[in-house]
Design a protein that fits this description.
Two copies of one chain form a homodimer. By secondary structure, the first copy, chain A, is mainly alpha-helical. Helices cover 69% and strands 5% of the residues of chain A. The first copy, chain A, has a domain at 1-79: Orthogonal Bundle (Multidrug-efflux Transporter Regulator, Chain: A, Domain 2). The first copy, chain A, has helices at 11-18, 22-30, 47-62, 66-77, 83-128; strands at 37-39, 42-44. The structure holds a DNA duplex.
Chain lengths: 132, 132
DNA sequence: AGCGACATTTACGTAAAAGTCAATGCGTAC
DNA sequence: GTACGCATTGACTTTTACGTAAATGTCGCT
């Protein structure tokens, strides 16, 4: 079943879908994050690559570095078997969780402030531009 | 009342409080984000600077660039008076809001996945390390 | 006066994440 | 068969956000 009838994606298809450049996707390949197949020199992306790209971009939006994203992907590919490694990983997960929760709080605070500013704008607009 | 009896903060006090380097605070000054006073060549920070630094660091955690942060600070300092400017600003606020909401969703998805991974770790640990 | 601790300025360095450019290949439509 | 468009590779460049080093200044203490 593996690699059966999956659709192939060309690099430009994916750049259009995700709004990134070809350079970016090649960069991610160089960094070992994705592994498109080749026919000749042309890359052919499987749906698994496509899915990976989605995750990479999400990580990027959150602010993860390439190194961190690579690490996360590694965890999915080969979850650590040894107990010490597992504990270490959970410790790091805990740290990341704390960081993300902080970040979420930051975002929420900022969203609130933006609402305030927006409201102020509206009243200001109402004041000035009654006849606009 | 202005500049009355406010406390002064030295640069190192603030670096300790916020866990950033002196270089960082001087950099923010160079970038025009904060304006500590001087006695001789030494910087003295007011509580307004301290508050600004808090906001800057929050923006940084969210992923805003220095330019964006400067822009936000500008808005607080001198809200635009002209109607066109106001509209433009609201448009940009809208864009930012969309971006932040997306980012928040990204974070929430990632937090969920982290929970799953953590759970998997726990069961795995239970399997292996019954006697650990 | 001299020491140590902390500050400052200037200037160059750096890592991450691409952007850009030039040369080249490959398929196919005309 | 050649021109065109899309791909590729490799090298070089850019931007952001500071780090780091070197040379000095300043303040308080003893």
């Amino acid at each position: 079943m593996r690699h059966g009838l999956d659709k192939y994606y060309t690099i430009t298809e994916l750049t259009r879908e995700f709004g990134v450049s070809t350079r970016t996707l090649r960069f991610y390949e160089d960094e070992g994050l994705i592994h498109p197949e080749r026919r000749g020199r042309t890359r052919f992306f499987r749906s698994t690559d496509r899915h990976l790209i989605k995750e990479i971009l999400r990580g990027r939006r959150i602010g993860f570095s390439i190194a961190e994203i690579r690490e996360i992907i590694q965890i999915y590919k080969e979850p650590p078997g040894e107990a010490g490694q597992l504990r270490l990983m959970m410790k790091r997960l805990e740290d990341k969780r704390t960081e993300l929760i902080q970040k979420r709080r930051d975002i929420e605070e900022t969203l609130e402030e933006m609402s305030n500013v927006e409201e102020a704008c509206l009243t200001r607009l109402a004041e000035i531009g009654v006849g606009t």
